């Protein structure tokens, strides 16, 4: 799944030339795995020795990081010059426009968020690496959870196939935000509700002491966050929260006044995983499009099932509380006959 996501994301993030370069795709896949190994080994060491251990266990991750910066150098320097040469606000705004015939303007978007003295090709390259790191394992993990549910619900797979066919134009998905796939969107949100990407979210560091309404005064430098684990299982928020209901949000949007609510990318107090306010994930629409395109391709072109005697893929956690897939889980895929799938 991570390989599929890395390839799907790459062309949109870094353009077709670097996005199809196998060196970049492999580096994008290897980077989060190197960090995962570093975190795992660091957590196993006694706290006293972790600063020293970290100097060693994260060496592979740092090597991949600098290799990715090297691969990005030519592209980021050229796009940095293009942005700086734009003579006025109108010209810079035009660079921010996203159209189907060019690379997603992430470089211009990143640069627009910096003051002139803060912008540099090196900073842009760093931000590209962060964007690739943040988007790849989280998107792959979401697909993992969706496939874990679909593989045990063949009737749901057929329902989603019918929806995909109903919105396809000449056998292809429309070039929009894919909002037409309302049932698939509902499945994505229900999967994220029942399998949040981490136990905590909305991390913030206090710049000054804060007195809580209940509890002690927290000193500056304290890290506070939201307990994501409790929200999905709250009976005050959800009907039968323990049940996986793939059409839960599809049905909720059918109620008057809810037409624009309960989408996979919606921001609200009951879905803190995307963050909130000006610090909300800026790539959530891009991630949703990647997920829907990838899942539509898998659903329409493959049959899948658990191996004989196999078990449903489970959720595990890393030492820092974020999601970790069951690396021993297996799902069998078989290409569907041409007459049974969309072109």
From TrEMBL:
SUPFAM superfamilies (alphabetical) = Cytochrome P450
Listed binding positions for heme are 281
Q: Recall the taxonomic lineage recorded for the source organism.
A: Eukaryota, Fungi, Dikarya, Ascomycota, Pezizomycotina
The record's listing under Gene3D superfamilies reads: Cytochrome P450
Instruction: Enumerate the cofactors the protein uses.
Output: heme
Q: How does it sit in the membrane?
A: Single-pass membrane protein
Q: What is this protein called?
A: Cytochrome P450
What domain of life does the native source organism fall in?
Answer: Eukaryota
GO MF annotations, alphabetized: heme binding; iron ion binding; monooxygenase activity; oxidoreductase activity, acting on paired donors, with incorporation or reduction of molecular oxygen
Organism this protein belongs to:
Neoarthrinium moseri
What are the subcellular locations of this protein? Membrane
The protein's UniProt keywords, in alphabetical order, are: Heme, Iron, Membrane, Metal-binding, Monooxygenase, Oxidoreductase, Transmembrane, Transmembrane helix
Provide a GO CC annotation, any one: membrane
Q: What's the main place this protein lives? A: membrane
Task: Tell me the CDD domains matching this sequence.
Answer: CYP503A1-like
Question: Could you tell me which InterPro entries the record lists for this protein?
Answer: Cyt_P450, Cyt_P450_E_grp-I, Cyt_P450_sf
Q: Where are the transmembrane segments?
A: 51-68
Pfam families associated with the record = p450
Family classification: Belongs to the cytochrome P450 family.
